[in-house]
Specification:
The complex is a heterodimer of chains A (about 100) and B (about 325). Chain A has about 100 residues and is mainly α. Chain A has helices at about 5-35, 55-70, 75-80, 85-95. By secondary structure, chain B is of the alpha/beta class. Helix content of chain B is about 30%, strand content about 30%. The chains are: A mainly alpha (about 100), B alpha/beta (about 325).
């Protein structure tokens, strides 16, 4: 294995760990806000159809994400989210 | 000296309207309204005037209070967003029917749904400059049904009519703490040229759930107590989702946030007084309790008044 390969593996581990951390925090937010179980908050779960997120939940979700990750979430960004995976990707993209 | 509650009273119009009424002419449902707001019924005036409703609430408040107390009421403040006439004020209309002294200071005020909290705070400040043993009557009174656009399903299901009165005096003790908030905004919650209410629900929600917890924390800090020391959070009864969010933010059990909006809807300046009156008459405000009253609404405004270690005052004949 080359140094480049070993570094890629390390990078993948770090990125994977980062993804897990972000996901765990987002799952916690959904559980706290919606009263659903953590098992229901899969990455493929659809916000409206599966988790019954309405527009007021969306406001609370954006506020919780902003507080948890110290960033800003615009209304139009929230409106475009369809799944939990979309939420994770939005936050990861903002965190860089 | 601290604000002390002596009595409460309230009045609602006879006509009670269930969510199902709105489904007869709007695309909505009882389930949607309940899930979205927590409201099931509300009361709307038909022939009653706001002044009549206010007098009824004030009479209810003064029932059982010694007659001599009426002579000692030095301040009457009515908080309302839609008095039927510009002049005379609703407050001034109470003097004769309630048999108050002609020396009484009366005025109306309009600070939206923050109205009653502001009125009580102002009453306390006025009492501090008056003779000891003076009382203040604060009333929140609204006929929001007359400001409702019944073609707007996002707002017309929310509002109800009511009046609620509370009688206060000052007693020895640690001063209460109060925090106010104002941010100019005539786009999120306002009345149009017809006098009908317009509201951007999501933005009002966002304002309420971010501002009210902050004010509550501030007043608790000023009083040098923790949130767990507060027995009841009497919050403007706009929407159960707002109140649940505030409780979650403060990490306080929802049981400490009594609610009656299920029965009355959003009655603006009357809502906190209506809740307080029901708690008063059911004995839940007896004994020593720390109470936090929080209003929020048009302006945008908000106010939080913390009554630390409050114990009701029983007015006696020997004044």
């Amino acid at each position: 294995m080359t140094d480049r390969g070993r570094k890629s593996e390390d990078e993948e581990k770090i990125l994977g760990g980062h993804h897990r951390m972000v996901k765990e925090k987002i799952v916690d937010i959904f559980v706290d806000l919606l009263g659903v179980s953590a098992e229901e908050v899969t990455e493929n779960a659809r916000l409206i159809e599966d988790l019954a997120v309405d527009s007021l939940d969306a406001v609370e979700l954006s506020l919780a994400l902003e507080e948890q990750f110290s960033l800003t979430v615009e209304d139009h960004e929230i409106e475009q989210l369809q799944t939990v995976s979309d939420v994770i990707n939005l936050i990861q993209g903002k965190l860089g | 000296m601290k604000l002390t509650l002596c009595s409460c009273g309230h009045a609602v119009p006879a006509k009670c309207i269930h969510n199902n009424y709105f489904t007869t002419f709007l695309e909505t449902s009882d389930q949607w309204i309940r899930e979205r707001s927590g409201i099931v019924t509300r009361h709307h005036v038909e022939d009653e005037s706001l002044v009549e409703l206010t007098i009824e609430a004030a009479q209810h408040c003064l029932d059982g209070v010694p007659e001599r107390v009426r002579e000692k009421i030095g301040v009457v403040i009515v908080a309302s967003v839609n008095p039927e006439r510009i002049v005379p004020s609703i407050a001034s209309c109470l003097q004769t029917p309630l048999r108050l002294s002609e020396d009484v200071l009366t005025f109306d005020m309009n600070t939206g749904c923050s109205g009653l909290v502001y009125a009580i705070e102002i009453a306390g400040k006025l009492l501090a400059g008056m003779e000891e043993g003076t009382y203040a009557l604060t009333v929140g009174a609204e006929t929001l049904s007359r400001m409702t656009d019944f073609t707007d399903r996002s707002t017309c299901v929310l509002f109800g009519d009511a009046a609620a009165a509370s009688l206060w005096t000052l007693t020895p003790g640690e001063r209460d703490t109060f925090s106010a908030f104002t941010r100019s905004d005539d786009q999120v919650l306002f009345t149009d040229e017809r006098g009908k209410i317009h509201m951007e629900g999501k933005n009002v929600f966002r304002f309420a759930v971010t501002t009210v917890p902050r004010l509550i924390r501030k007043t608790a800090e000023m009083a040098d107590i923790t949130l767990s020391d507060i027995d009841f959070f009497l919050t403007h009864q706009a929407n159960s989702r707002i109140i649940q969010s505030i409780a979650r933010d403060l990490k306080v059990p929802i049981e400490r946030f009594p609610m009656n909006l299920e029965h009355y809807g959003n009655t603006s300046a009357a809502s906190i007084g209506l809740l307080m009156s029901e708690l008063w008459h059911s004995g839940q405000l007896d004994g020593e309790k720390t109470l936090c009253l929080s209003g929020f609404g048009a302006g945008l405004t908000a106010g939080s008044l913390l009554l630390k270690g409050h114990r009701p005052h029983v007015a006696s004949e020997n004044i």
